[in-house]
């Protein structure tokens, strides 16, 4: 991890299927003990537990209401929301680049920035509406892709 | 080229000024430095070195490295990276050690006696501004000086959200923390600020200040807080002085402060937090980053910063180094080679990149020279970035009237700088008979928070270093 700069699928602690099937939940990809606690401090449900400011955050999925505030406040942009309650999985990503439009076709990228597939943008939350000043983009992906896709790229060189 | 579409920053149309460069007209945004405007105009070579006549260009962009010296209105050795462009200025390239103009006006020193300054703060970054606010709230009169055309230090270009705990503004972007500090300072009647002003020497009881290249002021403060920040480091490889080899912080200044694209295509050197963050910010500004090259076998910066650039497709090449760069008067190509476990180059693993910028994020060194000049006891502590003053737990150096705070005390993050500034400002005020329990409490709280910040496994070296300078 320290020589690569990204996690492999195996290294990510992905919640059980029954949890992701129940509605939106956060996937926290924060494997390093750094001094940082906004996810835990800002969770309105008290669902993120940390023992001290440098500890790793633990999600208590029983308490989580799926509001997504942790994703929006995370300074490391390391939290993603997954909602597998319907056929197509809705994946919400923090996205600090010029925003696409709803309905726009985008390329999905994995943790190494390699293309996974294409999809259309379902929802956009601009900075102004975000609890933590981080814009987010929601796309629909397959179950398998939800474990891989962590970024999108606008097509035709649109930046 | 100017950045027009940015996800975090907005660069509004501004008033402009016109100056001449080698007789040619150049337009600059009002408040923009000469070097930034020239970069936007496509000028990379700002001068020539002495005998070897090698091209000289921008490097640090914050007045630390003297690579951007030019002749301005006939006066040589002007640091164009911190000098704001003014209407009608005449800017020329200079070579080597230029002659002084024969008819230059002599600047007479002025005693500054009209105002009593209890505490002089040198450096208007996070450490200095916090020291000033804490000192002012305790009742002391302060003057903050900074060489740059604006206050806020390096916070003015930190578009990312800070880590830390919620008591330390975690989750807030550095630029917003900077703006908030500057606004608070402006609201305080007890704080006077001078930008464009260099502290050029600290003597027994006098400090010399050179203001806007026009006035030389002599000041006799009771206490001095040196929060002079840090210099970007350089590494050796053939043609490392070619214009286009820029400090990563310099690149960040061009794009995030002045809204100027540093180049079209960048090779980043160093995978510490600075290298990772600046890479991400380059991508946000629409600049292509070919790769991040890191000589060590592991990424030095935070994993989450590395993950952000990785998922944008920027490879992080650990165990690689820059072999050299080349180009006609500016960077055009950079060659990278793979290293084996013992750090030897592996043959036939060279890769050549077509880039116009090689950004160096290879470390920072504390700006200690004023402290050395003042006679403060220094130690060379590699874990803290180089020479730093020994100090007690209230940031007092071996000279009881001089405090240190921020990167000048050892390379750390802005959060630590603000806490150290708070301690220095509170203690300086207490020593002058201002303040009381509130300041003592601020010192205790800041110490506690510093301890917590430095508790992680990542800060092990830092903790070792700090032990060596404790008195």
Q: What's the helix and strand layout?
A:
The complex is a heterodimer of chains A (159) and B (471).
Chain A: H1 17-20, E1 25-28, H2 38-42, E2 48-49, E3 58-59, H3 69-73, E4 79-83, E5 89-94, E6 105-109, E7 115-125, E8 136-141, H4 143-146, E9 151-154
Antiparallel strand pairs in A: 1-4, 2-3, 4-5, 5-8, 6-7, 6-9, 7-8
Chain B: E1 16-21, E2 24-29, H1 34-40, E3 47-48, E4 55-56, E5 69-72, E6 75-79, E7 90-92, E8 94-95, E9 109-111, E10 119-122, H2 126-137, E11 142-145, H3 174-187, E12 191-194, E13 197-202, E14 207-211, E15 215-219, E16 223-226, E17 230-232, E18 245-247, H4 248-257, E19 265-269, H5 273-284, E20 288-294, H6 303-310, E21 316-318, E22 320-326, E23 333-338, E24 351-354, E25 357-360, E26 364-366, H7 369-373, E27 378-381, E28 386-389, E29 402-404, H8 414-431, H9 437-453, H10 460-468
Parallel strand pairs in B: 1-7, 3-8, 9-15, 10-11, 10-16, 11-12, 16-29, 18-25, 19-20, 19-25, 20-21
Antiparallel strand pairs in B: 1-2, 3-4, 5-6, 5-7, 13-14, 14-15, 17-26, 22-23, 23-24, 27-28
Helix pairs in contact in B: 2-3, 2-8, 4-5, 5-6, 8-9
Q: Gyration radius of chain A, to the nearest Å?
A: 15 Å
Number of domains of chain A: 1
CATH topology of the largest domain in chain B: FAD/NAD(P)-binding domain
**CATH architecture designation of the largest domain in chain B:** 3-Layer(bba) Sandwich
Query: How many distinct beta strands of chain A?
Result: 9
| β-strand amount of chain A | 25-35%
| Count of alpha and pi helical runs of chain A | 4
Number of helices of chain B: 10
Mean pLDDT across every amino acid position of chain A: 93
Per CATH, the class of the largest domain in chain B reads Alpha Beta
Sheet-strand content of chain B, in percent, reads 25-35%
Query: Which stretches of chain B are poorly predicted, pLDDT < 50 over at least 5 residues?
Result: none
Portion in helices of chain A: 10-25%
* Mean pLDDT value of chain B: 94
Give the CA-based shape of chain B.
globular
